[in-house]
Amino acid sequence: MGDMVEKSSEEPLVSLDNECSRKMGELVEVSSGDKVKFDDTGLSMVLQNGLENLRLENSLTDVILCVDSMEFSCHRVVLAAASNYFRAMFCNDLKEKYEEKIIIQGVDAKTMQMLLDYTYTSQVLITKQNVQKVLEAASLFQFLRMVDACASFLTEALHPENCVGILRLADTHSLEKLKQQVQSYIIQNFAQVLHCEEFLEIPADFLYNTLKSDDLYVTEEAQVFETVMNWVRYKESERFPLLPYVLENVRLPLLDPWYFVETVEADQLIRQCPDVFPLLQEARMYHLSGNEVRMIVTERPLTAAYAAYNQQ
């Protein structure tokens, strides 16, 4: 800590007791000959350790949080300082401000223990097994730094089989940065993700934005069409009205003409949905017409892969 000390070469240090001077010399910054600025950056750790010891000793605690069958003795001021949720509870004129025992809903006792340990020690162990519960509890009680830590953990843990679940979790807790990262992952790994059963649970808006991306990684457009139809059929009664909405971002003109006639136009759901007919007509014009018409009917941007396919 010696590098925390700045000494003036022109003015002497204030006269202090030798022992005191030795202990404090690592913590002071001299600003003038007769003034000392004492900046003890380690005091915050001393305070935190002291508060943790008080909690463990059940000393000066003034509130008991009741979760399931367990009771946790805490200090209102510590909870309010760490969490906006508890700040609102204890600093406003709510009944909990005066109650000795408070029943906490929406979290299990084990997760509550983790939150309190984090509050008093700054440490928490996040694992694949507990990250969802920790994130949900941290979001509920507004431990914002813990929420960020869980989001970072989930970003690093992205995999084709779990990305849709993480996407839905991020959406539930309004974690916009995590949602964007998951969406980018799905776009870049679309060929692997679409084979996972969980992909069929993806919300319509996320599917729409995924298919809309110019960076969507697929080997052929037929994969995109089949993905849309599988998604619709998974919950057909609910999703059939959304077929024109999601099919809009399938580049139908880039399908093989024979595949288009034998598979797309022959599909029973397609035939039952008049709202998709303009999209089918666009594809027909593309397949039957020359370059001038193609410039008109392919206004939607193409990826580099699609463009290369178009030039063949």
TrEMBL record:
InterPro entries: BACK, BTB/POZ_dom, BTB_POZ_KLHL6, SKP1/BTB/POZ_sf. The keyword Metal-binding does not apply. SMART domains: BACK (SM00875), BTB (SM00225). It comes from the Eukaryota. This is BTB domain-containing protein. PANTHER family: KELCH PROTEIN, KELCH-LIKE PROTEIN 6. The keyword Repeat applies. Residues 61-128 form the BTB domain. GO terms for biological process: B cell receptor signaling pathway. Keywords: Kelch repeat, Repeat.
